[in-house]
Amino acid sequence: MSVNTFSIHPDDRSRLIKATIEAKEFAYARYSNFRVGAALLTTTGDIIKGANIENASYGGTICAERTAFVKAVSEGNRSFTALAVVSDVASAISPCGMCRQVIREFCAQSMPILLIPADYDKRVAEGDVTGGVKETSIAELLPDSFGPEHLDLPRGD
Amino acid sequence: MSVNTFSIHPDDRSRLIKATIEAKEFAYARYSNFRVGAALLTTTGDIIKGANIENASYGGTICAERTAFVKAVSEGNRSFTALAVVSDVASAISPCGMCRQVIREFCAQSMPILLIPADYDKRVAEGDVTGGVKETSIAELLPDSFGPEHLDLPRGD
Amino acid sequence: MSVNTFSIHPDDRSRLIKATIEAKEFAYARYSNFRVGAALLTTTGDIIKGANIENASYGGTICAERTAFVKAVSEGNRSFTALAVVSDVASAISPCGMCRQVIREFCAQSMPILLIPADYDKRVAEGDVTGGVKETSIAELLPDSFGPEHLDLPRGD
Amino acid sequence: MSVNTFSIHPDDRSRLIKATIEAKEFAYARYSNFRVGAALLTTTGDIIKGANIENASYGGTICAERTAFVKAVSEGNRSFTALAVVSDVASAISPCGMCRQVIREFCAQSMPILLIPADYDKRVAEGDVTGGVKETSIAELLPDSFGPEHLDLPRGD
Ligand SMILES: [Zn+2]
Ligand SMILES: [Zn+2]
Ligand SMILES: [Zn+2]
Ligand SMILES: [Zn+2]
Predict the structure, then answer these.
(1) Does residue B109 sit in helix, strand or coil?
(2) Ligand 3 centroid, distance to C84 Cα (angstroms)
(3) Closest Cα partner for A17 from A72, A82, A64, A84?
(4) Are C16 and C41 in contact (CB under 8 A)?
(5) How many Å apart are CA C105 and CA C138, to the nearest integer?
(6) In sequence order, which residues have a C-beta less than 8 Å from that of residue B18 and are 6 or more positions away?
(7) Which residues, in sequence order, are CB contacts of A87 under 8 Å at separation 6+?
(8) C60 and B62 in contact by Cβ < 8 A?
(9) CA of C85 to the centre of ligand 3 (A)
(10) What angle do CA C83, C89, C91 make, to 5 degrees?
């Protein structure tokens, strides 16, 4: 029997989704006009918010998810229970590959990743209990991934 | 019946794998000591090689796969039939998330991506016809991906 | 007469340097073994700390300075008075080009950037009043820079 | 007496500028609509062209200058005599910080970097012998830079 080690308390889930939507407010999406918010739930119950911070060079842009991770890790948090992401578009948006690679560095394969539609609150108000949230994991989003352990493998001749 | 639009001619497949292994020779892996080679096969039969080019800032590093893509696109090639990747470790190594996102920008979901073990030639010489190559696709490596079309979606209130 | 609009109160300067050195403790420098700490002083007197957060892909690495910026901006702070940076090496280390580009996005050309030697505290204890701190600015570190305004320029034929 | 080791033959200079302008044609500037071309002159007289290749994630974008460098290095060229850059805007545009850091990895401090205005050909046709080209170097564009040698410095206690 497999035990889900990542069951999130409904209150934490609500707090996390609320924080994710709030986080979007501080996006600096000057070039894409595509605001994204993210939030991490730590194993100690803390929530760390992130937003996308763009750059005139485009390549210097840092997504909401990675913002949340570097905030958390730089404050000493490396142990996470869930991640949530939201944008301004109605459908639930999934992290880009760069963010998936950073999630891979710090999270368990099965940690819940919640993809929140922009109209989550409206959906809930209208009686949709799930609010349109899609739940996934890094196992699903970045299969057969490259990770820290590969750098330790012996090099051939 | 589904038709595989990406059947690669065995000769092209051999050429591609050979080029990928050669490409690794020009890796600039000064910091990781982890050399990677990549090669793209275009629809016109050309092969474009890439290697990882690292940077003292670490964040400025560009992987072998992305090197191959920017080489190809900057020469006017945006139509690809297959990608192959090899490193110096015995097991077949998979692209990082950043590279998967760049593959996503330019390739069809089902385009073959060949992951080549470092000892491919030895395996083939020893009678392993597949050479240990693992075949995958961006559909498999970056499921539920974020892509160009999402930036065109209408933003909510 | 030129007025320095960025005179930092000595107390704030001390707080900023102390925070920068503390920030380094949470670096995730698994691959380079080169820890860096950074801290931003906001116009409201708040201090936001950053550390370098590396990634197995190398290219996914985010430096201490950029960590501090995305933390600040994602919390609603976009108005800064000073930035400070420290590493584990004796000499004062300067930001990489990627970080300079992010500083360029959010800071005035003349905003003080303090480069702190790792042995700052020891130097001060030994009577060096400056502690070996080197003061610079983005005007000096990224001359003739590319910035947001260039993206608004009319394109030629 | 200081000897300029980087005097470029006028023919090479012309070839380089022409290649830079041509390179721009293959830019993939889908998101910024800001096309950039770059070209590197190697010590053996070869010219390697680059263009900016953008990505839906924004952060996955690779500039024209970096495209030229990874192309060159992945083909075995690490010895450069000059770099040139052009965009579609009338004024000469300077490399972003990320590109400056990559230039820093592979080029001498005084290697000429030519910033070409978009209307270079028109200027020359109208009798402006310089064509509005601005000449600079990485010493000027990235002063007090972080580089490979810093990663080798001894770490303090
Ligand atoms: Zn992302
Ligand atoms: Zn990669
Ligand atoms: Zn940096
Ligand atoms: Zn650039």
Answers:
(1) coil
(2) 13
(3) A84
(4) yes
(5) 10
(6) none
(7) A24, A34, A35, A36, A37, A93, A118
(8) no
(9) 10
(10) 70
Q: In the CATH scheme, what architecture does the domain A10-139 have?
A: 3-Layer(aba) Sandwich (3.40)
d(CA C114, CA C20): 10
A107 annotated among ligand-binding-site residues: no
B91-150 pLDDT tens trace: 999 999 999 999 999 999 999 999 999 999 999 999 999 999 999 999 999 999 999 999
Distance CA A82, CA C28 (A): 20
Query: Annotation-wise, does B4 bind a ligand?
Result: no
Six-digit token string for D133: 């080209």
Q: Which residues of B touch D151 (CB under 8 A)?
A: 31, 56
Three-class SS state of C28:
strand
Judge whether B51 and B26 are in contact, CB under 8 Å: yes
- D8-14's contacts with Cβ under 8 Å and 24+ in sequence apart are D8/D41, D8/D81, D8/D82, D8/D112, D12/D41, D12/D45, D12/D81, D12/D82, D13/D82, D13/D114
As given in the structure block, the two tokens for residue A18 are 């609320």
Which residues are within 8 A (CB) of C45 and not within 5 positions of it... i.e. 6 or more apart? Answer: C12
Instruction: Using alpha carbons, list the distances in angstroms from residue C124 to C15, C39, C129, C132.
Output: 14, 19, 6, 8
Superfamily of domain D10-143: Cytidine Deaminase, domain 2 (3.40.140.10)
Tell me whether residues D101 and B56 touch, CB distance under 8 A: yes
Residues of C in contact with D88 (CB under 8 A): 155-156
Is residue B131 within 8 Å of residue B117, measured between CB atoms? Answer: yes
CATH for C10-152? 3.40.140.10
Distance C75 CA to ligand 1 centre (A): 18
Neighbours of chain D (3+ CB pairs under 8 A): A, B, C
Contact D101 B55 (CB under 8 A): yes
Label the pairing between strands D36-42 and A47-51. unpaired
| Domain ranges for chain B | 10-140
The CATH fold assigned to B10-140 is Cytidine Deaminase; domain 2 (3.40.140)
Three-state DSSP state, A116: strand
Size of interface C-D (CB pairs under 8 A): 95
D97/C104 Cβ within 8 A: yes
Q: How far is the CA of D100 from the centre of ligand 4 (A)?
A: 7
pLDDT in tens, B8-58: 999 999 999 999 999 999 999 999 999 999 999 999 999 999 999 999 999
pLDDT digits (tens, 9 = 90+) for D99-157: 999 999 999 999 999 999 999 999 999 999 999 999 999 999 999 999 999 999 999 75
The closest ligand to the CA of D50 turns out to be 4
For A17, residues 6+ apart whose C-beta sits below 8 A from its C-beta are A84, A86, A114, A116, A120, A131, A133
Query: Would you give the DSSP letter of residue B70?
Result: H
In this structure, the dihedral spanned by the alpha carbons of residues C13, C16, C21 and C27, taken in order and rounded to 10 degrees, is -150
Angle at D127 between CA D126 and CA D132, to 5 degrees: 90
Q: Which ligand is nearest to the CA of A38?
A: 1
Annotated active-site residue in B65, B105, B135, B140:
B65
Return the C-alpha torsion angle A38, A26, C28, D55, nearest 10.
70
Residue-wise DSSP of B71-108: HHHTTT---EEEEEEEESBSSPPPPPHHHHHHHHHHS-
Selected residue of B21, B123, B150 to mutate for chain A interface (largest A Cβ count, 10 A): B150
Tell me if A99 is assigned to a ligand binding site. Answer: yes
Q: Which two tokens stand for residue A20?
A: 């994710």
Residue A33 is assigned to a ligand binding site: no
